[in-house]
Amino acid sequence: MSDVVLAGVSVAYDGAPVVWDLDLSVASGEWLALIGPNGAGKTTILRAIARLVPFRGAISIGSRAVTELSSREVARQVAVLVQEPQMPVGMTVSQYVLLGRAPHLGYLGKESARDRGIVREVVRRLSMEELASRPLDRLSGGERQRAAIARALAQQAPVLLIDEPTSSLDVGRQQSVLELIDQLRREQELTVIAAMHELTLAGQYADRLALLVDGRLAAVGPAAEVLTERAITEHYRAQVRVIQMNGSGTAVVPVRS
Amino acid sequence: MRMHQPGASAKLAFRFFAVAFVSVFLVASCGGTPTSSTSAPASHFPVSITEPSGAIVTIAHQPHRVVSLSPTATEMLFAIGAGSQVIAVDDQSNFPANAPTTKLSGFTPNIEAIAAYTPDLVVAAEDTGSLVHGMQALNVPILLEPAARNLDDSYLQIKQLGLATGHSTQADSLVASMRSQVGALVASVSKPARRLKVYHELDNTFYSVTSATFIGQAYKLLGLTNIADAATAATPDYPQLSPEFIVSSNPDLIVLADTKCCQQDLNAVAARPGWRAIAAVKSGHVVGVDDDIASRWGPRIVDFMRAVASQVKQIEMAA
Amino acid sequence: MTATVTVSVVSERPAALAGMPRLPWPWAAAGLGALVICCAVGVLVGPVHIGVGAVVQALIGGQVDPGQANILWSLRFPRVVLGVLVGGTLAVSGAAYQGVFRNPLADPYLLGAAAGANLGATLAIAFAPGTSILGVNIIPLAAFVGAGAAVAGAYALGRSVTGLRSATGLILAGVAIAAFFNSIQSYVQQTQTASIRQVYSWILGRLVTAGWDDVLLILPYVILSAAAIFVHRRLLDALTLGEDEVTSLGIPVRRVRLIVVVAATLGTAAVVAVAGTIAFVGIIVPHAIRLLIGRSYRVVIPLSMLFGAAFLVLADAGARTVVAPAELPIGVITAFLGAPFFIAVMRSTRAAAL
User: Fold this and answer.
1) What is the pLDDT of residue B10?
2) A53 at the C interface (CB within 8 A)?
3) C292-347 pLDDT, tens per residue?
4) What is the pLDDT of residue B13?
5) What pLDDT, on a 0 to 100 scale, did the predictor assign at position B31?
6) CA distance C18 to C21
7) Is pLDDT at C11 greater than 80 in this prediction?
8) C200-253, pLDDT tens digit by residue?
9) What integer pLDDT is reported at residue A27 of this predicted model?
């Protein structure tokens, strides 16, 4: 089981509280989108789950508290896709994806043939064989995002944390990246928690949305319940029209008064 | 350009006159018989002295508050009987023992600290830190006596200091005595069957001196072959020699001028890798000299030459 | 639980995926070849001519002129071996510092190792001349201790200021410590003018005085340092990711950084203690390897050892032959050979990659 449960979680940076007393549970295999205005604490929650930042309260993955796990064990449970992955100059795609095997190696361990085989399978699954020996700095934006997903996938962790997966991509690439994540989630029964700023896409791909405001949970539920004109106007200070599209989700359209 | 013409020509004329004056004066004082046998007659002043650089220094009255920033000049001043006129010497001036050593530095001179002694003559070896400019601004005469290239340079400096302090007579007799002692030492070293080879060491990373230097001239006078002369093409004065070159040159005599800086002696040299094979080490002709004597160009060069000559005689005797 | 990822690993050997990190064996062979050739040059050239035959005879224990045997065994061989150790260590330590600090300008002296060594040596020369501890001259010991103290000080300062969250804090702490140590060193040097000559010739890098005792003195540290950095080469690759990304892979970033910095400092301190500060090797060699061969530390670390050693032995051969029988400071040669070569490499590879 790889459900993620947060109970009474608070995070502070240098004494300044960023997340307050948060309760949230994500079922195994579910896709939860964290939405909310800039600075609401979306990234901080992801960092807390991956234990990249100290927190108060309890976070558990598959009923084990993350604080009881070693950092290598956490890394075998949770793969993190940061908003702007660092793409080391000159590093090939294969080499980069291979780094995802780190949690499965000892401190000074060496990748085995099995590790290399897993990388090969992941690269094949993402149709990146042609790019395998290409340096990361010579990839397009969409290819980079796929490489980052491949690296996270090679980690073989049941929980995938994604911070803004579609920033700086055009609408077509946004869709193909999200489709890919969704397919992988279904194939491999991944639990996905993603901070998303594109509300329409969040509503279309996530099972549930959690709206965060000033480090507190303002609403959580399916898109149709959370994405209301009132809530968005109030919390984002935006002029929007929310349109329910038959069978295609909820569209949030900015309007100019 | 035209604006500067009159000034420049006036300067030139002055320099010309002054050179002529000093030349005449020097000839008179060197060649002539001394008129007074006691301390220098104050009537000789003012005097003008041409430095090796060509600059002319005029000293109006006999100085009684001399500051020396050059250890060599300090040794010379005391040797010609001008010591009582010296009120302060720099921190490196450690000879003679009664020299009034102060914290003044000749490497990084502090104009204000020097001025605090209200000197009426400053002697230095180098114009570092705008020393000359600073002293001229204070109207204090400053005489530069830079590193000598040979004994004649050294003799001339002693005479100039004699002139500047009113001790020409003593300076002349000191030079005469040095000349005769050096001559005797050179004569005492008989023409050997083969020329002996010498290695002079400045520090324990094998910096040495060639015959183009003051100390190298002393070896030349004593008829020694200086192994460092092989390196003059690229480094004419103070080459750093390869140890394998020193070992294969097999010098008969090793002179260590790094006894104080680097605590070198026969044992230390013998302990160096490969050096036991050198003739000088095998026969024990590794002589330590006072680093200071070997790096100055004062009257004690005679002592240095005597020490070297005695080694040369021992080596010849053993042969 | 991790079995949720359904990846079928075929039992028979799968076709290797392109672009996997590995040390390209032709380059490894080239590095070994370069080292052998440079060592051969190193033992064959010098102000004293010794023929190939004599060198071979000396090595296999045959009949050699005792004078030549003395020069070979007492002076040239230890000097070449010391050059191998010093060059390899400086290049590997430079590569390691660049990896740990993600800073292409990092060199082994970045955290104050040179400043500390210079201060230690200057203090020993000025205040305890000629002393030795357990039969070892105090100057290299003091230099070793000084280098270690400077880096430890930088580390402690960096940790107290930034909690080591960023490498930049550590670098700035190193710069501050180096400046502080340099100022004390200059003060001591200015006030103890009697020892100024020895201090200067100590600070200028040199292999002139190399002997077997120097080799033995630094050998344990150099081996330990190189081995520790070598086994961290995979982790150094991981450190090229962002801080959060490395940590989320379960890699203890601070521990890796501490161990690698300690190892590189140990090697650098040992090398500085016997050879003084030799610049450029630690920057030029690893970067030339990155530009020409590959950026993975699995490539950079082993090849830096080989090419760094070869480069320094060659530079030292130049130092003792260009103006023979005089010596040139080796730093003059490393910069004179290294800088144009490095510029040529940068131009030919159109390095977008620095």
Assistant:
1) 41
2) no
3) 899 999 999 999 999 999 999 999 999 999 998 999 888 889 888 888 888 887 78
4) 40
5) 35
6) 9
7) no
8) 878 877 888 889 999 999 999 999 999 999 999 999 999 999 889 999 999 999
9) 95
DSSP assignment string, C88-145: HHHHHHHHHHHHHHT-TT--TTTTSHHHHHHHHHHHHHHHSTT-EETTEEHHHHHHHH
In the prediction, which pLDDT does B8 show? 40
Residues with Cβ within 8 Å of residue B184, at least 6 apart in sequence: none
Instruction: Name residue A31's beta-bridge partners.
Output: A192
The residue of chain C nearest to residue B237, with distances taken between CA atoms, is C326
DSSP C19-35: T-----HHHHHHHHHHH
Which stretches of chain B sit within 8 Å of chain C by CB?
91-92, 105, 107-108, 202-207, 230-231, 233-235, 239-245, 247-250, 258, 260-263, 272-275, 277
Contact C21 A90 (CB under 8 A): no
Rounded CA-CA distance B199/B225 in Å is 9
The residue with greater pLDDT, C13 or C300, is C300
pLDDT of residue C350: 62
Identify the pLDDT of residue C160.
83
Query: Using one digit for the tens of pLDDT, what is the confidence trace for A197-238?
Result: 999 999 999 999 999 999 999 999 999 999 999 999 999 998
pLDDT at B317: 85
The neighbours of chain C, by the rule of 3 or more Cβ pairs under 8 Å, are: A, B
The verdict on a CB contact (< 8 Å) between A88 and C241 is yes
Instruction: Please give the Cα distance from A217 to A20 (Å, whole number).
Output: 9
Please report which residue ranges of B138-192 form alpha helices under DSSP H: 151-165, 168-188
Residues of chain C found within 8 Å of residue B240, distances taken between Cβ atoms: 208, 326-327
Q: Which residues of B touch C216 (CB under 8 A)?
A: none
C-alpha torsion angle, residues B236, B242, B244, B246 (rounded to 10): 40
Q: What's the average model confidence in pLDDT over A98-104?
A: 95
The two structure tokens encoding residue A128: 């990146």
pLDDT at C81 over 90: yes
**Residue C308 carries which side chain, given as an amino acid letter?**
G
Across C79-83, average pLDDT: 97
Ranges of chain B with pLDDT below 70: 1-43, 192
Partner residues linked to B200 by β-bridges: B255
8 Å CB contact of A99 and C248: no
Nearest of A144, A201, A146, A139 to residue A171 by alpha carbon: A201
Peptide bond before B46: cis, by omega within 30 degrees of 0?
yes
pLDDT at C15: 64
Q: Residue C195: CB partners within 8 Å, gap ≥ 6? A: B261, C122, C125, C126, C129, C189
Phi, psi of A218 (to 5 degrees): -90, -35
Q: How far apart are CA B296 and CA B70, in angstroms?
A: 9
CA distance B101 to B291: 19
The pLDDT assigned to B5 comes to 40
Which of B204, B215, B246 is closest to B228 using CA atoms? B246
The answer to whether A123 faces chain C, any CB pair under 8 Å, is yes
Count CA within 13 A, CB hemisphere, residue B263: 12
Q: Are the beta carbons of B315 and B285 closer than 8 angstroms? A: yes
What count of CB pairs under 8 Å joins A to C? 138
Tokens standing for residue A124? 């094949």
Beta bridge partners of A48: none
> Is the confidence at residue A116, as pLDDT, over 70?
yes
Among candidates A204, A195, A209, which has minimal Cα distance to A251? A204
Contact between chains at B248 and C193 (C-beta distance less than 8 A): no
Are residues A191 and A28 in contact, defined by beta-carbon separation less than 8 angstroms?
yes
Distance CA(A204)–CA(A187), nearest Å, equals: 19
* Three-state secondary-structure class, residue B47: strand
- Nearest Cα residue in chain C from A77: C2
Indicate the pTM of the whole model. 0.86
Phi, then psi, of A24 in degrees rounded to 5? -160, 135
